[in-house]
Design brief:
By secondary structure, the protein is α+β, with helices and mostly antiparallel strands. Helix content is 20%, strand content 45%. It is globular, with a radius of gyration of 14 Å. It has one domain (9-83). Strands 1-2-3-4-5 form a five-stranded antiparallel sheet.
């Protein structure tokens, strides 16, 4: 994978109110929901999947508390990447 590829970045406040920067690795839809795969800029080994919520006030990221839903989303993402690897 080319590490020089530009990724959109977002800043998220953690539970302590500290700003954390993430790159958006992927956005994808599954079962009428949109998910974002985020990679920590501080620790490249930390990757998170979150649901994108659309409201009248804009878009928000919410955690996925159901471990089976989270696993299903990550499995689907891995299958998609394996089927269409980046050059």
């Amino acid at each position: 994978m080319n590490k020089d590829v530009y990724r959109d970045k977002i800043v998220v406040l953690d539970e302590n109110g500290e700003e954390k920067e993430f790159s958006i690795e992927a956005l994808f839809d599954m079962k009428d929901k949109t998910y974002a795969l985020l990679r920590s800029e501080q620790d490249q080994s930390n990757t998170f999947v979150m649901q994108v919520e659309n409201t009248e006030d804009g878009q928000f990221l919410t955690g996925i508390n159901d471990s089976s839903e989270r696993d299903m989303v990550l499995d689907a993402y891995e299958i998609a990447v394996d089927a269409n690897p980046a050059e």
